[in-house]
């Protein structure tokens, strides 16, 4: 056992009146809402990378955090890091965590060594997982090393494509072995810096074929979790192919994968794509590809991925409302893809940030559930479209001419009806 | 004949050294480039709305332009407007124009009267078109009237859907009758102001079915032009369903229309969606849906649709480079969806703005054509991906395992190769 | 009495549990907080323009609202409009309203007629104000008419400058006569569309001299209210000189007005300038120019002035926290520079939107007041800077050398201390 | 001599027709324009940091560049780095370079050792500078080390303030000793991450006092170069106090420094602040604080500091037009604060990028000079404001009343005049 979190007790629910900064005021794991515990609704996961790998650097400065396992370039330090990670999971009582291969093992000198190290680390964490924190998803980091600077599966060099195939295969195997419930692909370098040197058609074909192979392999090994793509419009690249949910959906259709792959929607990525988080969630639901969420908060006015902990309850309510409308999570969950501000250098900051984030999500969930229970938003929504219940303009036999004929025969003159937006916003504010 | 442009002679090509503000310095219609005249490459069109309908208002002020046909609310004024329009087309020598139904006829008191007026105006302009300016595309304005405030085909009221069916049918008929080469759908109100009152699934279904009907009707009446969708992310709505090219492509696939409908890509809309214009053009080409362009320039720092005349030659070169890579225009063309700044109140401003815009496009085209003729960008692009010529990782028999096995057998360690972006940018700057 | 709001009763406080959409749940005017009633803390004002002048148009569509006083181009309709306005003020029980000259009187055929009409309307509304709704501020609309298209006081035509002098003088006189507590200048056209035709130096000099004249005139007529400038970065112009609080402050200093003029800070304008609302408020306080606020909410992802009603309680809390830190309002107040979404076409929408907005502000105020009462944020803030209490590096006698000598003598090696941002955010979330 | 640039010959001017990727096509140092050589107009400088310190990392990946002096953590490697730097300066024939203390010396274990190392490196580069590349400006890096995470002069810890005083003193001394022509302060961490933990008033006071000390020290040591502040709105902090030129100007006035300090304006920072580069330059000129420029290009659609090499000639022309209007550079110059894209990993990329950038600036300068020689933009500008030549509305004796009286006596009705924006844009396009 490390002493990194020494003196910090497991976090418990103390209720809204508590002023204990390391207690839950809203997240009460066993509380039942709409027939399910909050634990099962929210399915919280802690991200290994932000908490245990990132050193506090930004483009203008280096490490600010002082953690005993840095620089974590040996297996020994990687194990110390894992020890600390699971200590934190236990303090928070989270049911899940998520990792990139690269987060839990240092890169080896060869493809083989990297794989061996990943397997060794999997052996190391497996017993720790018996403590109750399972793997929500695994993924491979195919963006940090310089070999990926021009892309992973979309690289101009076919050897990089092959390198990726091996890396993903290894990482899927480990995810499967550890009982991971999903496997995520995040295409940080699948895109371009400049169109001038990019063969767009070819790169899209490479990426599509790669994804098909991943899906085939999933079935082959009997992995029953979901394959998830995480959309993001840009950063690190100037343009990323997995721009947003609608773009990913079109891509999936093009490669025949729309029933095989779902999306992991991140708040911050939604914002960077010019959307609200709830938009991306609603679109994922409408298109049948809702999978999981990366919960965080992007500064609306900083044009990069700020990955802050969520702190706005009304926004969380709108997000979980869409999650509930989508039927809630199945294999997915709420992963905190959020990092401390780099000035928050204490161990206690790590805990407090998660406690605050979990509470915000809990508040959002409760408000969303209450709105659903009260039919507060759905009743007016149904009423607004009620005219369509008796219209058959969309039927298979309808044509532009037949519908036009209806309009012309009646010389109809449709009158506008209030959209009542402010009244609906006020209703939401009754719940948050 | 009106005297609105009195004293302004037809614009002619005078060459780069000319200082005549109303002469072409670069656009030489009969000059042959890559085997085709500039006229046939560029296929310029003037937009009726910005030039003859818009009064110079903005959200904080009203009409600044003083045009004899304003307010154009009678058929008499509509005809005066048409007279002036064709006078301007003749001065500019443009081969095409574009219109919304609403631009050329005042709204009638009924659906029928609106249709009758459109037909009357079609009769009125048809002989004028013999002067040489043909119809690039027609479209229906289904966003200005308050009946469309909550959407056109996506309206919660099925009667609005029916109203639209009649309106589009009439407008397609007129477009067909006038020999229009395309029919455009721009979904300015097909989207939402707030998710709170929106049934996303239903609205997408309405819009998809409507588009299917339009395509069926096109075939029925023997219209051989293209049906085009014009993507735009937002404004007037908070979110528009036709967000960008990739989103539209996914939508078309979902409704089985990806081989029936193409896109009309606008520079300003690309910018608002967070893309470069050339990105959207390249994406349209890659996805097989490139149709036509709305040329203008959006202020990168104003978050609304500024619709300025293009004035940056290097940017125009990158755009026409993608147009040429897509095989050039077939039914499409270069429509100036651009408007004067509201302080540019003189008739001469209208002419000068188009002359400048046409010259910028001509400069862009010439630079793009030269880069293609010299293989200046394609040679390095081919070289960059040359490794794939002998790789079969994408073959139908390849699997994640087989490709991984290749990597593992060789313990490959792919080395990065310079992307040479600045060198390519320097090459482009040799041509612009 | 009009019957526009027929059937809508005066809005009263019913408490948080009320589900009455037209009752206050949080705004309890007589409730005392930190020694002052909520009425006196918040000093709510209704904006004449958004509610009674704006017709629901946007750049792509015209009037959606159907109000009996439209188009309000006669004195008779202007009076009907005023009747409705004061009926709404009474329903809401607001202590203030705000207007532009142009809002309450139709433009006359001449400068004189416009002035006469303004005075006539002032006579008309004066008795109505005895009902309890006073004038928070008046202002002149010097941006809508085409004469202002190239600026008001910054116009290239000195006659426009003179026209503005007369207009502002008349409007200040009326504001003074009606007991207005402030006079606002909003420079919607004081800026430029393009630097190419702009004499920046000259325009800044014109604007500075104009403001000096306004201040001199204020003193001459014994107007004891504040002169306020309302910063906004752009829209309608490409660039506005009153970009943000810091820019306005520099401008005021340059013309010797930093002790004469304060700022009216608008949430939406702060957002458009790349700032948070609380930043602008904090900056105004720090620079000693805090005056009043225009409360609304700008969509973070729409690059134009969306002027939505505020609906996010945590954000309102941060704003009122800065208002309280600035000592609260003196002559200023909370003006709702907010407009209905254009689909919200019912009279009830007008009332509900204000009720919701007032409640959000009340929630914000209460949370802010509690944080101050508990010293919840100030205690950690003081602690963070406590080292400065005993440092004299800033004293008048200190020099770069003397301070450097201290550092060098001790070979100091300052160690970072956690900024605790997430912990502070969690504290805020205990209050909202 | 290193062999890093082995095989790359000094770059020479070959004229516009050259296709040599490592030749100047436009920058002809000895060519005289408006009475001055291009060398003396442009005063090019190479930035040490981007070229010799940055390793190609971004927030999602590490080093891509493979340079023999990395990681440059010893004096030996620092000297190797300096050798390579001066080899590159010679190849490019640039008259200037710029550095942070941290760029040329590795951080020492103590304040003293860091100072000693800086002095040792100054001794090392001094003889190299006899080769012709002088120091345009020096600056201290007070943002990368974790001690600065909460600010430099604005730090909550007064010891950090003192540490900065020593650091800046040392760096000013070295800059002075090496004949540097300016000293720059860039406040990357002078700002805040969250208002919640920030004492804005106090931090502004600290920063103002620090700057006063710097100015006093400059005079004391007889440094005759300019003290420059480099505005930037955000990144790395959420908000930086030196937001833009207008903000800095207000700050300087507040601390009595507006005649002592000038600005170093960066294209990318202007963009991030919502301005055009030419706006910031024009504003600096109008406010009398124009000093120097950091030339680069920010991607308009990436919300972070992309620091690309400039590649758009029309934009460069507008920038140098404002430089020429400001009287050209005195102590300032054109520093390339630009970095390679991280995929551009070859030594040749470093040279090619600068050659392209220098050529773009040269094209811009030539176009700007020609517009000035032809009075192409100034003649219409003067004409636009000509009415003011005979107006005395701004005189000291004028009052709001007297100017209003003029307007009212004449019942003037000013008529708008075209702003002719598109015509002016067309004029510019004749020159670029």
What does this structure look like?
The structure is a homotetramer of 432-residue chains. Chain A contains 15 helices and 12 strands. The first copy, chain A, is an alpha/beta fold. The first copy, chain A, has an 8-stranded parallel β-barrel, surrounded by 5 helices. The longest helix of chain A is centred in the last third of the chain and has 27 residues. Chain A is globular, with a radius of gyration of 23 Å. The mean pLDDT of chain A is 98. The interface between C and D is large, with 98 and 98 residues. Chains A, B, C, D: Its main location: cytoplasm.
Biggest interface reads: C-D, 98 and 98 residues
Mean pLDDT metric of chain A: 98
Gap between N and C termini of chain A: 41 Å
- Major beta-sheet overview of chain A: 8 strands, parallel, barrel
**Low-pLDDT segments of chain A:** none
Oligomer: homotetramer
Number of helices of chain A: 15
Number of E-state strands of chain A: 12
Report the radius of gyration of chain A as a whole number of Å. Answer: 23 Å
Helix content of chain A: 40-55%
Principal-axes geometry of chain A comes out as globular
Query: Helix-strand pattern of chain A, N to C?
Result: EEHEHHEHHEHEEHEEHEHHEHEHHHH
Give me the side-by-side strand order of the main sheet of chain A. Answer: 3-4-5-6-8-10-11-12
Report the structural category of chain A.
alpha/beta
Strand percent estimate of chain A: 5-15%
Family (chains A, B, C, D): Belongs to the xylose isomerase family.
Subunit structure (chains A, B, C, D): Homotetramer.
Cofactor (chains A, B, C, D): Mg(2+)
Binding site for Mg(2+) 2 (chains A, B, C, D): 266, 269, 305, 307
């Amino acid at each position: 056992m490390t002493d990194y979190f020494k003196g910090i007790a497991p976090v418990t629910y103390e209720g809204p009146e508590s002023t204990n900064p390391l207690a839950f005021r809203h997240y009460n794991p066993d509380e039942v809402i709409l027939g399910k515990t909050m634990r099962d609704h929210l399915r919280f996961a802690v991200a290994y990378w932000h908490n245990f790998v990132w050193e506090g650097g930004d483009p203008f400065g280096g490490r600010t955090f002082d953690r005993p396992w840095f620089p974590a370039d040996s297996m020994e330090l990687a194990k110390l890091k894992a020890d600390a990670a699971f200590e934190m999971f236990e303090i928070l009582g989270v049911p899940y965590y998520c990792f990139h291969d690269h987060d839990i093992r240092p890169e080896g000198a060869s493809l083989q060594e990297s794989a061996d190290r990943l397997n060794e680390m999997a052996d190391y964490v497996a017993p720790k997982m018996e403590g109750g924190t399972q793997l929500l998803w695994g993924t491979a980091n195919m963006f940090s090393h310089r070999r990926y600077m021009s892309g992973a599966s979309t690289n101009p060099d076919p050897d990089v494509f092959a390198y990726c195939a091996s890396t993903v295969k290894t990482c899927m195997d480990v995810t499967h072995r550890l009982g991971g419930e999903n496997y995520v692909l995040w295409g940080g370098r699948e895109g371009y810096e400049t169109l001038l040197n990019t063969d767009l058609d070819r790169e899209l074909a490479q990426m599509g074929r790669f994804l098909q192979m991943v899906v085939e392999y999933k079935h082959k090994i009997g992995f029953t979790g979901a394959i998830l793509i995480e959309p993001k419009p840009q950063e690190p690249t100037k343009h990323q192919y997995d721009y947003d949910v609608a773009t990913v959906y079109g891509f999936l259709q093009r490669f025949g994968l729309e029933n095989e792959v779902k999306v992991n929607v991140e708040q911050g990525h939604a914002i960077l794509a010019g959307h609200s988080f709830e938009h991306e969630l609603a679109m994922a639901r409408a298109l049948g590809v809702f999978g999981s969420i990366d919960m965080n908060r992007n500064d609306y006015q900083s044009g990069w991925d700020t990955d802050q902990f969520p702190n706005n309850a009304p926004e969380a309510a709108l997000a979980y409302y869409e999650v509930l409308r989508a039927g809630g999570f199945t294999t997915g969950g709420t992963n905190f893809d959020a990092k401390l501000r780099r000035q928050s250098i204490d161990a206690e900051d790590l805990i407090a940030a998660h406690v605050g984030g979990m509470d915000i999500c809990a508040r959002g969930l409760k408000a969303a559930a209450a709105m659903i229970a009260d039919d507060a938003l759905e009743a007016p929504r149904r009423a607004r479209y009620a005219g369509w219940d008796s219209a058959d303009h969309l039927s298979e036999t309808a044509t532009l001419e037949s519908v036009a004929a209806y309009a012309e025969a009646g010389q109809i003159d449709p009158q506008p009806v209030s959209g009542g937006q402010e009244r609906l916003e006020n209703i939401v504010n009754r719940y948050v």
